[in-house]
Amino acid sequence: MAGGARFALIVVAAAALPALAGADDYQLDPFEQATAGFAGCPTVPPPTLTLEQMRTQAHQRAERGTSCCLAGTCECGGSYKRDPEINARVAAAIRDDARFRDASIWVTTTRKFVTLQGCVRTPAQKRTLERLVRGQSDVAIVWNETTVGSVRNAPRKATQQSSRSTNMVRQR
Predict the structure, then answer these.
(1) Strands 113-120, 31-36: parallel, antiparallel or unpaired by DSSP?
(2) Cα angle vertex 168, ends 148, 135, to 5°?
(3) pTM recorded for the entire structure
(4) Separation of alpha carbons 71 and 65, rounded Å
(5) Using the 8-state DSSP alphabet, how is residue 14 labeled?
(6) R_g of the chain, CA atoms, integer Å
(7) C-alpha to C-alpha distance for 29 and 17, rounded to whole angstroms
(8) Where are the beta strands (DSSP E) in the chain?
């Protein structure tokens, strides 16, 4: 698909988003709760954007997808193309692993970058979770923003513009 056609497709898809999301917010990235075993862990809201942020993101995503395709560093169709299947695969892996049944974990994927939020019981469980997710196919980076132990340090509201400095790990 040519760059102009890909951009037009993203613009059309972005225009359809108001029907899918609330009139005031837009969700572009796949988001799913993988486990709900930590009673009292605050719910993590999905990452949403305002209309203006969504339009800016749509433009940036189209440019990024075209550039990486032309450079041969990603599959043509955009670097976000496989995010829904990656997100579902990661959430299923966490859900199917008995070690995380007592945790509450939410998963968001953007450009093969997986963000983990919620509550885990111990630092060891947090590290094990990160290793599990890093080992899933097509995961490029894991941002582990889970809270250990007490729910006093509840996860912050998820946004597309949030800082991603905690526990960034590059896949090799």
Answers:
(1) unpaired
(2) 85
(3) 0.73
(4) 10
(5) H
(6) 17
(7) 12
(8) 31-36, 104-110, 113-120, 141-144, 147-148, 168-170
Give start and end residues of each alpha helix (H) in 29-114: 51-71, 83-96
* Strands 168-170, 141-144: pairing kind: antiparallel
Angle between helices 83-96 and 123-134 (to 10 degrees): 140
Q: Is pLDDT above 60 for 160? A: no
- Amino acid residing at 83: D
Domain containing residue 131: 3-170
Q: Residue 94: CB partners within 8 Å, gap ≥ 6?
A: 34, 35, 100, 105, 107, 129, 132, 133
How many domains is the chain partitioned into structurally?
A: 1
pLDDT digits (tens, 9 = 90+) for 82-116: 999 999 999 999 999 999 999 999 999 999 999 99
Instruction: Look up residue 149 and give its amino acid.
Output: G
Q: Give the span between the Cα atoms of 28 and 146, in whole angstroms.
A: 22
* Chain Cα centroid distance, residue 38: 21
